[in-house]
Amino acid sequence: MNRSSIMGIISVILGLMIIIFPLTGYLALDLIFSISIVFLGIYSIIAGASIKNWVNIILGALFLILGIMMIYNPGALAFFTAFTNYFVGIILIVFSIFNLFMGGENKYASIAGLIFGILSIVIGYLCLSPLFIGILMGLWFIMSGISKFVEPDFKE
């Protein structure tokens, strides 16, 4: 059994565990993500101070505050995930409608953009639930694990 197959099995098992316990998986993801943002903030502050770049220092402070806020409020990750989906959905819808009415080159691409924009807003609404994010994360791990079994082996 090669390394890729072992990683695939671990990923599928982890995905199934997260689907069975989605809130626990969400909280683990939130904690890892939050700690990463705190370290990014600390690094940005130190790097900005060493080169006297105020933009890095300000962004570092914002990242630090955001990371600490997300550690103490696990629902913040769901909010930011939903907000990102809403933002992308609105942008897709606006550009698709603009392209349709301004006589864009490809009407089918505009309609597809409109459909994907609406789907993005619906997914954003669903992402307000940490339970939904946990289930999505479990499905991602399972699909990632399965893909480890079907990827070609280039060692010939």
Question: What do you see in this structure?
Answer:
By secondary structure, this protein is mainly alpha-helical. The protein has one domain (3-147). 86% of the residues lie in helices and 0% in strands. The chain is built from 6 helices and no strands. The protein has helices spanning 3-20, 22-50, 54-72, 75-101, 107-126, 130-150. Helix 2 (22-50) crosses helix 6 (130-150). The longest helix is centred in the first third of the chain and has 29 residues, at 22-50. The mean pLDDT is 86.
Strand and helix map with partners:
Blueprint: H1 3-20, H2 22-50, H3 54-72, H4 75-101, H5 107-126, H6 130-150
Helix pairs in contact: 1-2, 1-6, 2-3, 2-6, 4-5
Key attributes of the depicted protein:
single chain; 156 residues; mainly alpha; 6 helices; globular
Low-confidence stretches: none
Instruction: Indicate the structural class.
Output: mainly alpha
Q: What shape does the CA trace take? A: globular
How are helices and strands ordered from N to C?
Answer: HHHHHH
Total strands: the figure is 0
Instruction: Summarize the biggest pleated sheet.
Output: none
Number of H/I helices:
6
Distance between the termini: 16 Å
Mean pLDDT: 86
Brief digest:
The chain is built from six helices and no strands.
